Amino acid sequence: MPETLKLAIVTDIHHGPDKLTKVGSAALPGLRDFKAFTEDYQPHFIAELGDRISDIDAATDAHQLRQITEQFTGLPAPHWHLMGNHDQVHLSIDDNARILGQDMGHHTVDAAGRHLVFWQMDCELHHPQGFVPRQADLDWLAADLAATNLPAIIFTHVPLDGGSLHGNYYFDNNQRFGGMPHSREIQALIRQAGNVVLCVAGHNHWNDVNFIDGIPHITVQSLSESFTTEGEASGAWATIEVDHEVRWRTHGRDAIALAVPVRGLNAHWQAPLPRFEELIRQRQIPEGLDNIKGLILDMDGVLYRGDGAIPGAAEAIAALQAGGIELVALTNNARASAADYSRRLAGLGIELEADRIITAGRATAEYLAGQAAAPSVFIAGSTALRQELLAIGAVESETPAFVVAGFDMDMKLSTLAAAVKYLHQGARLIATNPDPMLPGGNGIEPEAGAVIAFLEAASGQTAYVVGKPNKIIFAQALAKLSCGAEAVAVVGDTGETDILGATLAGLRSILVASGNPAGAKEFHKPTICLANLAEVAERLVG
Questions:
Q1: pLDDT tens digits, residue range 56-66?
Q2: Of 362, 365, 368, 364, which is closest to residue 337 (Cα–Cα)?
Q3: How many Å apart are CA 408 and CA 267, to the nearest integer?
Q4: Mean pLDDT throughout 176-197?
Q5: Active site positions, annotated
Q6: What separation in angstroms does the CA of 43 have from each of 78, 209, 252, 273?
Q7: Where do the domains of the chain lie?
Q8: Of 369, 373, 341, nearest to 355 (Cα)?
Q9: What contacts 460, CB < 8 A, 6 or more positions away?
Q10: Mean pLDDT, residues 243-247
């Protein structure tokens, strides 16, 4: 069995006045207790991970730091300090080095058969970016890990795991200041080295652990923090013992204990999968636009924008139809019926029959028809949505099995209140579409996504949304085409609904620039990007 390495760690001392939830007045007494503890514990090495003071001004900070330095004299084992962000607000790195009596650059030491790495990365807090790693620091770490054949333990002030900060007093609402913005790049470097068995940090003022590639990333609680300990200073420090396992214990009022096996050198988890959307694309979706025999068309942004037809859209529809391309139009809007949309399109010079148009309202009705022969519903939506639901045999009820949410400009608050009541009585929340807003004749108007947010917040339920990007609505569109999915492409202007939905349904997609100026996010990749429907028609039928 390997020799047991014993480490004692203290971090985020924050000596100074009481500030927010930092009980700075408890810092020096806490350090004296820590020193007495180490005399009994007899560790191989003692690590202090930064933020020794609560910054006030240069003279006060220097005085506070000298008081901290006095507490680190006469320790029973060697020790090392890291820079924290508060340590360098009014004092320079050289000031810290002079007062602490040590060089504040990167430092390594071998102890009990392990390689201890004190990675002194840039901990100056930049606004608004947060922490910005220097390439020289990354290069140093890579070279240092490559030069040792011992299991390595990395100490930093800022955690490297990129873990959740939900609930953290300081960082829940300030995420970019709680960790390294390039944590994945650093984790990739550590993975490539293959010999890191543990990472230890402070900064976040709580106890936390995440496992990445089998490596525990431990965050140690602050000595003077009180947000987790009901207003009293935590008095926290940690011991870590490493042999065939890692045994971490934080002492004090915010105690925690963990024991896990040590990861073997060059032992790795499987590399993460690419995005599921990309896997679907790789496995199911042909490349290019060859052999396209059918198109599923988004409407707003492809056929019209606001009250007017997009230039060339009417001619493109006629050319596609004359060229033998089957067409189905698909809209996430449930405010009007397919017949209403067919009439609207005709007024714009676009001929498309109602049976070739699927609205989110119609798609939702068909989904519910598959759930029950006569589904009992409460409807929080438009007259058109109500008509679609009643047409498939739905029954409005005061004891509904489903609350169906859409949007209507005349919707009353009492309607939403009734919906919330039924949801709390056990009804399921079904929604037409996720769009929070859409362009209207008078500017931006709210849409069903805003209603969903209200009902989810008031009920605690999560809505089942039928509209795009749910592949259900694309399957309904495919059912109206005589050609198979391999010969169909979706034409849309929005990555989060049209392009993602096409990918999830296993269909090729064409992103047009005639509608949504935001376009597709980078991970919603279309088969091709074209200017507008006229260019689509030119590509497919000339």
A1: 999 999 999 99
A2: 362
A3: 57
A4: 91
A5: 298, 300
A6: 9, 22, 18, 41
A7: 5-261, 276-332+470-541, 361-465
A8: 341
A9: none
A10: 96
Provide CATH code, domain 361-465: 3.40.50.1000
Pairing verdict, β 256-261 and 294-298 = unpaired
The Cα 402–Cα 389 span in angstroms is: 11
Task: Judge whether residue 407 has pLDDT over 80.
Answer: yes
By three-state DSSP, how is residue 289 classified?
coil
The residue whose two tokens read 């009980």 is 23
Confidence of residue 524 (pLDDT cuts 50, 70, 90): confident
Chain center to CA of 307: 37
Q: With contact defined as beta carbons under 8 Å apart, do 222 and 202 qualify?
A: yes
110, two tokens: 């071998």
Question: And the tokens for 455?
Answer: 């009902």
Confirm if 511 and 529 have CB atoms less than 8 A apart.
yes
Distances from the Cα of 191 to the Cαs of 134, 254, 335, in angstroms?
Answer: 19, 31, 52
Sort strands 294-298 and 326-331 into parallel, antiparallel or unpaired. parallel
Q: CB-based contacts of 288: which residues, under 8 Å, 6+ apart?
A: 527, 528
Q: Is the distance from CB of 119 to CB of 137 less than 8 angstroms?
A: yes
Phi/psi of residue 289, nearest 5 degrees: -115, 20
Cβ density class 351-367: b for 16+ within 10 Å, e for less: ebebebbbbbbbbbbbb
438 - beta bridge partners? Answer: 445
pLDDT, tens digit, 9 for 90 and up, residues 20-40: 999 999 999 999 999 999 999
How does residue 520 score in pLDDT terms, banded at 50, 70 and 90? Answer: very low
Dihedral class, residue 198 (left if φ above 0, else alpha if ψ from -120 to 50, else beta) = beta
The helix (H) or strand (E) run that includes residue 421 is helix 413-424
519 has pLDDT over 50: no
The CATH number, out of the four listed (3.30.450.20, 3.40.1280.10, 3.40.50.300, 3.60.21.10), of the domain defined by the range 5-261: 3.60.21.10
Region 401-428: what's the mean pLDDT? 95
CATH assignment, 276-332+470-541: 3.40.50.1000
Residues near 405 by beta carbon (within 8 Å), at least 6 away in sequence: 380, 381, 419, 429, 430, 431, 432, 448, 451, 452, 455, 463
pLDDT for 282 beyond 80: no
Structure tokens at 267: 């032992």
Nearest to 367 by CA among 474, 295, 207: 474
